[in-house]
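Appendix B, example 12.
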Amino acid sequence: MDADQKTRNKKVIEAIRVTRNVKNLEQYAYVFSDLLVAVLNGGDLKTEVQKSATRIGLGDLKTMIERSSSDPMVACYIDSSFPAMLFMVYKYADSVEEAILANANAGGENVARGSLLGALIGAAHGIQSFPEWTHGLY
């Protein structure tokens, strides 16, 4: 968290390349890394998520949510799963429990999306805010 952005991004890419060597992932990894650091440093979750959405060309999340009748269900492809994760984090930013349940219930690719969503929600709310039913999970 204390590393400068260039050093942090270098480490992020090194970690990704352990299992993947897909150039397309890098953009999202940088965005997520910056987003997570901003939230850990006290940035407002919704504000920081909207900045990330704008950065990847997604547009206004509040408007998207108002116009949507459901949460997005997407496949594992990063170009759809990352924007879906930002959508859900923004929509459920105020409730850890609702965010976790919405991710699980949306279906599609919810495992990787859920790990990113959980990291952001946890960074914003802290572990003490997680529902009692999440304790003891392995």
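The radius of gyration is 15 Å. The mean pLDDT is 89.
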